[in-house]
């Protein structure tokens, strides 16, 4: 295993992953042989296009005119006042087309698919946001789209399932294993291995085999680039802290990455503690997991003593995943980002509070970040600034929250 | 010479091809596996691929996924699989055993400890589906030092340059995956396989086993004409599933398929 980098000296975070897709001991490309050629092809294409001015111009154009970027950096004044500490700014990814940050990445990957001449795209989804974002770009480009979704998540996220169908995608229920996001990802990999010639796999998070963690991060980094510029302009300085929820970790890495070399900016990744980290019923591998290999990369995982992946628990389908992007695993070991956890109850409380105090209904995923910001703000000075990534809107979660309230529609 | 080398050398001398059955260890229960291994050897198996169950078998189709689920439900872990090989060796010191599975259970046990235990219990080769040669620089020497073969897959999508690279990292034999897809999926095309095997032969010195899509005596015979070994998995595991509550019936059904394959392959 690769040595841990010297913690007394910060690495140039922008220089990672290395040429073989490693972030220290994490990342890499652990897949069966049939997919190696496809990943090589994708990497070659991406490395060529990422510095191509025309590709970047196309990407920026779509983000501006189709997604509606830049998303605002909103000062939550009333909530800040109630908490009585640092100013809280919300990076409004919930205002993007399709209602979450996921579309930043699917726009980018769809452009890649088009350059590679692929006629069919597949995706895995948990909460359904990435599935919707994939179905959306597929509709726009006239691509066939199949979305794999665990049976349990289909039940929890019926509205998004119907949205995908309206967009022309086929939603394929996954009945193996725990019937959630990890199993959907297994099934998408199996489909890809079978249809590798004509199919592009749009992975929704910063996990999976190299080059996915790198390219998804690059596409999502628009969040942090905008936030950095907006903070300098609106607050007149860099923020003191960033807070984002972490399932696979794409919204978090998107916000964090452009700030990693800014040493004064503290960062907090908030995992889903489910019933509580101490109960074992959670989805927080960085808080309570071990390094291992799953879904093509080495990262922190939730596993038993035999190396079998264990079931996760979270009220939020989008965070219900036993692994995490390898760059987060690396940033944890380096100590650059602090990884903490918020449980179901804390997330639900934050969901209700932001809705009532600011008139913004957050996704249950984003509510985990809000739950931590709520604790953090009062410990900081009133002249300090926190940016919370409001990664998605909460409309999709209304049925889940209503069910908890005992209301049936 | 290792058991794998000896086996392939002997087969070559006899002008026969290797019959390589795969079963998932501990499916449907732990106690059935070792007797089934002996039965398979009796029915004509030359090498046994023993599957280590994993919770997330990404490269496997529904048949082997369910086998993994049954084995895990019965409580089968990597340590149990290694213990099965130790027990098998008490009655059979000649037939090579290759463990086939995914990386994480091995990583969890620790590579050095795993390699050492392989040597100790009599495992001859290890095939980790999600460990390509690019990622094995630090792991491979641990097996090499102990004479445990690392077996790698070659796929229809593998470029010539990669075949050469894989051949350099591999020992024992190469496993050619005959179709793009998961285990137990589509039927293979014998002419395509023949052409690919020819290409691999020009780039690698190792014996070549072919698997994925071999379902019956006829396909086993066809593949045996072009390759050095024939791997059969899902067709056997299907029988395990069908007779899950009757160990004797499993043994009869699996032995029956293998005996038919053996006879067809040995026909000149």
TrEMBL record, chain A:
Domain Tryptophan synthase beta chain-like PALP: 68-392
Pathway: Amino-acid biosynthesis; L-tryptophan biosynthesis; L-tryptophan from chorismate: step 5/5
Enzyme class: lyase
Reaction equation(s) it catalyzes: (1S,2R)-1-C-(indol-3-yl)glycerol 3-phosphate + L-serine = D-glyceraldehyde 3-phosphate + L-tryptophan + H2O
Cofactor: pyridoxal 5'-phosphate
Superkingdom in the source lineage: Bacteria
Modified residues (N6-(pyridoxal phosphate)lysine): 102
Keywords: Amino-acid biosynthesis, Aromatic amino acid biosynthesis, Lyase, Pyridoxal phosphate, Tryptophan biosynthesis
GO molecular function (one): tryptophan synthase activity
Keyword Disulfide bond: no
NCBIfam families: trpB
Protein name according to UniProt: Tryptophan synthase beta chain
Species annotation: Alloalcanivorax gelatiniphagus
Upper lineage: Bacteria, Pseudomonadati, Pseudomonadota, Gammaproteobacteria, Oceanospirillales
The encoding gene: trpB
From TrEMBL, chain B:
Reaction catalysed by this enzyme: (1S,2R)-1-C-(indol-3-yl)glycerol 3-phosphate + L-serine = D-glyceraldehyde 3-phosphate + L-tryptophan + H2O
Record flagged with keyword Amino-acid biosynthesis: yes
Pfam families reported in the protein's UniProt record: Trp_syntA
Residue numbers annotated as active site: 49 (proton acceptor), 60 (proton acceptor)
Protein's pathway: Amino-acid biosynthesis; L-tryptophan biosynthesis; L-tryptophan from chorismate: step 5/5
GO molecular function, a single term: tryptophan synthase activity
Keywords annotated in UniProt: Amino-acid biosynthesis, Aromatic amino acid biosynthesis, Lyase, Tryptophan biosynthesis
Function: The alpha subunit is responsible for the aldol cleavage of indoleglycerol phosphate to indole and glyceraldehyde 3-phosphate.
Family: Belongs to the TrpA family.
Protein name: Tryptophan synthase alpha chain
Lineage: Bacteria, Pseudomonadati, Pseudomonadota, Gammaproteobacteria, Oceanospirillales
Gene from which this protein is expressed: trpA
